[in-house]
Structure formats: C-alpha cells, structure tokens
C-alpha cells in the first residue's frame, strides 16, 4: 500500500504548484536526459536483412527500433495493456492514477498501476527506479516534458528501443531476435502477448529460466486483450496453445569478417549496408563448414562470389567458423591473406601474349625440357607433351609454355597487368622473375577473383566492392576484348570434375608449391567466384590438388548462386578465329628467343615428315619415321588413334585424309612428339 502513496503525493504536488502557469514553468525547466543512447551497430545485407549486430559498450543488445518495424498487432496489445489512453494524455494519465488509488484503497493492495508508457520511457532513459517517491515525481515531470518536445511516435519508438526483455536484451528487435529468431515485423498473438508482459518483470519472467512465470504473465495479457475486444476468443485459445520459447537464440553473425571490416572502415556509423546477399551468404557458410570437416583440424577455407557486371561482392566467407577456440584460426579472414596463387595466373599470361601478337590459341608451342639460365621449370606431373597448341597448353596447365611466354612479354609487364586488374601483388624477393607465372608472387582470394572478373568483363578491370553506396572508379584495360574472349572460351572447354554439371563454366585451378594453397576460380556471363583451401599458418597439405579438391567445390558454389549459368557471349567482331594452317606464318609456331631446350639424345622425335610439310597424296598414305623412344609406339591423327602397338621406327598411315592433320606419336614411357602436315 505504501508503494502507491507517491502517486497521490505527485497529484497533490501538481495541485499545490500554484495553478497551470506554475506547472507549465515547472515542466519547462525540466532538464531532459540524452535521447541519443547508444544502440547496437548493425550490418545489413543488400535487402535490409540483418547480417550481424554488435553489443553496446556495457554488453547490452540494444537495437534501434521504430513503430513502422513492428507488427501492428503487438502495438495494439501493448497500448491496450500498458496505456490505453496513450494517444490522449499529455504524459501522465491522472484518471488512471485516481483509479489505481481507489482500487488500492478498496483491495488493500495495488491492483493496477498508473504509470504511462511515457513515464516508463522517462524511467528507462534515466535508469531510475520506481519505488522512491522522489523518483516517481521525477518520472512525472520528465514525462510531461517529453510529451511537450516529442511526438507520440517518437516516444513510442524510444520505448520500443529501450524496454527490457531479460538479461542483456533491450528493445523489441533484440527481444524477437533472441526469443524467436526473427525481426518483429510479423508476430503471432502468443509472441506479441509474451513481449508485452516481459518488460514489467524482465528477469523473473524470462521464458528460458522461468517458463511458468512467463506463461502466467502472457495469459494475463491475453485475457485483458480479450476483455477489451482486441482479440477474439478463438485468437486467445490459439495463442494459449503455443509454447513459450525454451531457449535464447544467438544473434545473427553472417559474413563476420566482412562485417568487422566495414565497422573498422567507418567506426562512427551505426548502420552498414553491404552488397552481400544473405541467403547466398548463409548457404555458402554452411557449405564451407561441411566441406572443411573432411580435412584436418587446422585446415581453413575461403569463398568469394561477386557480380562481375557491377563489381558487387555477393558473398564472402573468410573461414569455416568464426571462433576464438577454433584450431583452424577462424578469426583470420583468408579472403585477404596473401598466398601463392599457383597456376591461376596463367590465363593472364596468355591473354597478354595474345595482345602482343606472340601467339594465337591455335599456335603450336613446344613443351619440352628447357632452361632459362639456371632456372629449369618442369610440369607439375614431370611429363612433357612435345608440340601442343596454346589452347591445349592453357587447358592442361602446362608450365613450360607459360614460362616461355612470360620470358617474352617480360615479368614486369605481367606484374603491370596484375596491378591494372586492381591487385597489389607482394613479391617475396622484391623483383619479379619468371617464376611469377607459376605462383611466385603473393595475392589474396579477393584479388584473384577481381582479376578473373576483369577477364569476364571483356578485359576491363572490375573494382570489387562490398558497400552499397560505393562509387565505381574508371576501369583500366587488362587485355583486349578478343583476348579475354579467347581465355574464357578455352577455360570453359576444360572438362568439369567428376560428378559436376557439364555446364561449360570457365574455370582454372591452381596448387601452390608444396601443396600449401589449393585454388579454383571461375566465371560465367555474370558471376565470378573463387575458392581457397589451405592452412592459415602456411604449412603443406600433402596430396591436395586444386583440380581434385577446390574445383568440385567451385561448381557447388555456382549451384548455390543459381541453377543455370549465364552464357559467356559471342566473340567480338575483331576476334581471329582460324585454324593453325590458316594463321600467318609467324603465328603458326612459337619459338622462344631465350629458352634453351634440352634435347636428350634418346628423346622420341618425328624424323619425317618435318613439321609444316606439304605432301602429295599418292593414295598409299603417309609414311612416318621415328627417332629414338621406347617401343611400342602409338600414332594419333588429329587426336584419333590410327596405329598402336608399333614396334618399329617406320610406319605407313593409310587413314590420314587430305588437308591439315596433326600427327602425334607416343612411346611406352609417355614421351611424345608432334608435327603438323598438309596432304594435297
């Protein structure tokens, strides 16, 4: 009973204040607390969905909220239960105070309170209690002052932001995310009633700890709403059948590395709008966690997806798990860690070589032991293919042809091409050498995806970005349109991994020295994506290969993006589409000026016919003479076997037709040689 007397004291004080003018003066002199209380920093996706939020300094989850963001049914229940004349009074409902006082006198205890929503806001803003009469007088005075300076909507917004909902939860949005795992835009009657009841006694009614207390409090709200005609009997019956939540949910933590990056870039902003697509981000985070479970406990993973037509990053997964206790060092954002790119730079080398007129996709290049001074590159599998077309050399990811081309264009020009794509390459020794083409440079996943985005964008650099408000900069040209089309055409012809859809995704894999970094980067007509797998500490993963590990994952990533690929598009008008025999003489065969081929005395070679020979068709076929090699031999014409099991160094091939033909000879040890002839 004593708790209620301050209401009467306040009422008498107002009467004794000397009339309306004195009360007005008393209210006008009120010093308002700050209305700009800290709220949680929020990171949103491209459609306004919450990706991640941060607690305020005191560890409170306090998300900003407004009446427009809240289910209207909840607002009706709230007004009906807490302050049914909210839109009519001036901050203090004297009628309610008198009624509450009369009920207390008749019943000997407090039956209903007289505190308005505005008075509750006053208490929340100053964190003042309700027991002391001085605090109650202050709430009345502050409530009257708030009503004079703020709109009803603004007062309601303050309540929706500051009302306590148990533990360190403040505000309706923090409450619905924690108790129901959703925003408050759509609530059931049962959910709304529980939320109305919680702020009156937030800790003793926590549904995860005191479910019976929460049920009874919710029931009282529903009963009063039924009596007021806000809910029907059927609505209440349905609401009473719903269980209260038995656990508190975790707050969203999608794209945590990118969210931290956004906050660090603009620490004063309360909201960061990212280009990320939440459903795609969620799907790829689940995929990354599933895939990495098959590896050791120290292996991490990174995925990145972007729209290369706009540069918008649609998903960024920096690790499989964002946790301090994770042995995979999950707090490290591996989309930004500088690592060796392995063979993923080869498309850039070929594109630059096309533009310099050094080669064409149909140009023949020799894949054989070679030395550049003391540097002797070898293919990944240790084998040599002899003469191959440039398109085959790229598709097979051969090392020797790409190093020869790098020697011709110059490592400095290769580095310049990387920088035009937007990359900031890191050179271990400070100066670029031929090994750059095979991964001897530091790049991160974001830079590699950006490079491939430029190739997909007809050779023009694409600045990847994650801010919705980003203003694009002028694009530099990495390579010509025709060179970019050739690269995409070659990469889209690479066979997909076993079990993956044959959808002609243009992609390239890479494995760095010592199996430390496993890569796969790919694109279609609109999207570009990249995969990295490895250990953050840089230690090897023996036996892991980009084609075996990262490529299948890349195809899975594109399945998450969309069911069908966008086509790459037709070749530009200036693109040269000719067979090798139709090319100008200098483009038919590439001859390195700086390479010294190691011609082993017992190496298999085609002694006759010579490469480029034009022979007369006499009807008896073509005679092929071989030198060295290990029997038995096999001969292919235009990729089709025409003679096998040959145990002599001379063979007649009757099945070679007129026109251009590529003759390939293989021996028992996998050595090969190749010549191109013309049969007239």
Automatic annotation (TrEMBL):
Domain Penicillin-binding protein transpeptidase: 303-512
GO-annotated molecular function: carboxypeptidase activity; penicillin binding; peptidoglycan glycosyltransferase activity
Residues in Glycosyl transferase family domain copies: 61-224
Family matches, as InterPro entries: Beta-lactam/transpept-like (IPR012338), Glyco_trans_51 (IPR001264), Glycosyltr_51/Transpeptidase (IPR050396), Lysozyme-like_dom_sf (IPR023346), PBP_1c (IPR011815), PBP_C (IPR009647), PBP_transglycosylase (IPR036950), PCN-bd_Tpept (IPR001460)
Broadest EC class assigned to this enzyme: transferase
Catalyzed reaction equations: [GlcNAc-(1->4)-Mur2Ac(oyl-L-Ala-gamma-D-Glu-L-Lys-D-Ala-D-Ala)](n)-di-trans,octa-cis-undecaprenyl diphosphate + beta-D-GlcNAc-(1->4)-Mur2Ac(oyl-L-Ala-gamma-D-Glu-L-Lys-D-Ala-D-Ala)-di-trans,octa-cis-undecaprenyl diphosphate = [GlcNAc-(1->4)-Mur2Ac(oyl-L-Ala-gamma-D-Glu-L-Lys-D-Ala-D-Ala)](n+1)-di-trans,octa-cis-undecaprenyl diphosphate + di-trans,octa-cis-undecaprenyl diphosphate + H(+)
Key word DNA repair present: no
Keyword vocabulary terms for this entry: Carboxypeptidase, Glycosyltransferase, Hydrolase, Multifunctional enzyme, Protease, Signal, Transferase
Recorded superkingdom: Bacteria
Residues spanning the signal sequence: 1-22
Domain Penicillin-binding C-terminal: 602-677
EC annotation from Swiss-Prot or TrEMBL: 2.4.99.28
Pathway in which this enzyme or protein is active: Cell wall biogenesis; peptidoglycan biosynthesis
The UniProt record lists the keyword Iron-sulfur: no
One Gene Ontology CC term in the entry: outer membrane-bounded periplasmic space
GO terms of biological process kind: peptidoglycan biosynthetic process; proteolysis
The family this protein is said to belong to: In the C-terminal section; belongs to the transpeptidase family. In the N-terminal section; belongs to the glycosyltransferase 51 family.
Protein name: peptidoglycan glycosyltransferase
Organism, as annotated: Shimia isoporae
């Amino acid at each position: 009973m004593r708790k209620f007397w301050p209401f009467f004291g306040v009422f008498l004080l107002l009467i004794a204040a000397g009339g309306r003018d004195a009360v007005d003066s008393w209210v006008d002199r009120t010093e308002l607390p700050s209305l700009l209380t800290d709220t949680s920093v929020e990171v949103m996706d491209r459609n306004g969905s919450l990706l991640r939020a941060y607690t305020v300094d005191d560890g409170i989850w306090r998300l900003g909220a407004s009446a427009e963001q809240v289910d209207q049914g909840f607002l009706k229940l709230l007004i009906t239960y807490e302050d049914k004349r909210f839109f009519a009074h001036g901050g203090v409902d004297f009628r309610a105070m008198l009624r509450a006082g009369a009920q207390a006198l008749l019943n000997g205890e407090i039956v209903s309170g007289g505190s308005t929503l505005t008075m509750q806001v006053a208490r929340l803003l100053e964190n003042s209690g309700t027991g002391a009469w001085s605090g109650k007088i202050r709430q009345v005075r502050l409530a009257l002052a708030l009503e004079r300076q703020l709109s009803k909507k603004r007062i309601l917004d303050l309540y929706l932001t500051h009302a306590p909902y148990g533990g360190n939860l403040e505000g309706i949005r923090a409450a619905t995310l924690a108790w129901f795992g959703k925003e408050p835009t759509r609530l059931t009657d049962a959910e709304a009633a529980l939320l109305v009841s919680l702020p009156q006694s937030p800790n003793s009614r926590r549904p995860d700890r005191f479910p019976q207390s929460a049920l009874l409090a919710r029931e009282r709200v529903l009963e009063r709403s039924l009596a007021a005609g806000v809910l029907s009997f059927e609505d209440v019956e349905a609401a009473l059948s719903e269980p209260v939540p038995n656990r508190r949910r975790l707050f969203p933590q999608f794209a945590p590395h990118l969210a931290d990056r956004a906050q660090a870039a603009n620490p004063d902003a309360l909201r960061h709008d990212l280009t990320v697509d939440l459903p795609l981000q969620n799907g790829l985070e689940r995929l990354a966690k599933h895939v990495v479970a098959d590896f050791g406990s120290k292996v991490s993973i990174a995925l990145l997806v972007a729209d290369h037509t706009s540069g918008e990053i649609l998903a960024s997964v920096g690790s499989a798990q964002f946790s301090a206790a994770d042995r995979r060092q999950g707090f490290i954002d591996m989309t930004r860690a500088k690592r060796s790119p392995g063979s993923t730079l080869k498309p850039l080398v070929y594109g630059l070589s096309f533009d310099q007129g050094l080669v064409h996709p149909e140009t023949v290049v020799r894949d054989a032991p070679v030395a550049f001074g003391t540097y002797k590159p070898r293919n990944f599998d240790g084998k040599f293919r002899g003469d191959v077309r440039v398109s085959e050399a790229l598709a097979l990811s051969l090392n020797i042809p790409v190093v020869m081309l790098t020697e011709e264009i110059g490592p400095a020009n290769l580095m310049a091409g990387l920088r035009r794509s937007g990359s900031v390459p890191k050179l271990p020794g400070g100066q670029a050498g031929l090994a750059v083409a095979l991964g001897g440079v530091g790049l991160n996943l974001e830079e590699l995806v950006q490079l491939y985005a430029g190739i997909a964008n007809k050779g023009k650099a694409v600045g990847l970005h994650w801010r919705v408000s980003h203003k694009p900069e002028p694009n530099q040209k990495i390579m010509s349109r025709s060179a970019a089309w050739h690269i995409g055409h070659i990469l889209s012809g690479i066979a997909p991994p076993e079990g993956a859809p044959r959808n002609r995704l243009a992609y390239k894999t890479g494995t760095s020295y010592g199996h430390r970094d496993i890569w796969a980067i790919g694109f279609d007509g609109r999207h570009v994506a990249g995969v990295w797998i490895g250990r953050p500490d840089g230690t090897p993963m023996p036996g892991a290969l980009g084609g075996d590990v990262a490529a299948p994952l890349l195809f899975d990533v594109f399945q998450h993006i969309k069911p069908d690929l966008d086509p790459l598009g037709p070749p530009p008008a200036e693109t040269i589409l000719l067979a090798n025999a139709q090319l100008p003489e200098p483009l038919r065969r590439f001859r390195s000026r700086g390479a010294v081929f190691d011609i082993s005395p017992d190496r298999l070679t085609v002694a006759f016919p010579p490469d480029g020979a034009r022979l007369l068709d006499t009807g008896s076929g073509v005679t092929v003479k071989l030198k060295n090699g290990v029997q038995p031999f096999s001969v292919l014409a235009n990729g089709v076997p025409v003679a096998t099991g040959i145990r002599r160094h001379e063979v007649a091939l009757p099945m070679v037709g007129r026109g251009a033909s590529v003759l390939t000879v293989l021996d028992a040890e996998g050595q090969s040689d190749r010549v191109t002839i013309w049969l007239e």
